[in-house]
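2024-03-11 09:14:02 DEBUG pipeline.ingest accepted 1 chain
2024-03-11 09:14:02 DEBUG pipeline.ingest length=229
2024-03-11 09:14:03 DEBUG pipeline.predict start
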Amino acid sequence: MHIRNALVATASLAAMVCGSAYAADLPNRKSAEAPYLQPVPVFTWAGLYAGLNAGVAFNNGGGGSRTGFTGGGQIGYNFQSGSFVYGLETDIQYRDGRRNGFGSSSNYFGTVRARVGYAIDRTLIYATGGFAYGGGAGSQTVVVNNGGGNNFYTGGSSSTRSGYTLGGGVEYALTPNWTIKGEYLYVDLGRNNRNLTPTGPVFVGNPAFVASNTSDRFSVIRAGLNYKF
């Protein structure tokens, strides 16, 4: 009797040990954890930026179409709320007065503008406008003949004028830091007043001087490259 009980106990113990070993070899049915995927950063237009630009300045008044090179730099700051982007930008530009026929041996202009736009991910469509200033050394010559003969009247000036600018553009982000843009601006610097004096003796009937009043209004088409900090 004791031997039978011992054999039963031994068999039960062996069955338990084998069952535990078999259970240990079974695959774990618990689902493996999904790998961590780092979220893709959302591009933002907000922040400080600076860059360079180049293009052409032209007008269609006075003596016909006049076109010349313009180029310079800009710096600005954007804020963003959802898809709406707004901020301030200022720039300073060289304008080739000799080539474009504006009657200047050297010229410059600058602007301080607000920008308001709508962002579609990395593309920004915006309108802009604000204060404009500019000037440089200028000269002008006219010919007058009131019956006595030809008189050449010349005059020059060096002044800074102010006005306004309006325009718009499209900007695209190549990377999180570099953007390119195409932009149009209309610039109105008011009128340039000069008194022109004769280069020689005044013929009978001709005036002692000629008052010149010319407008300084032009358009700018340019491309730019910005670095966003």
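2024-03-11 09:14:41 DEBUG pipeline.report Helices lie at 2-25, 97-100.
2024-03-11 09:14:41 DEBUG pipeline.predict end
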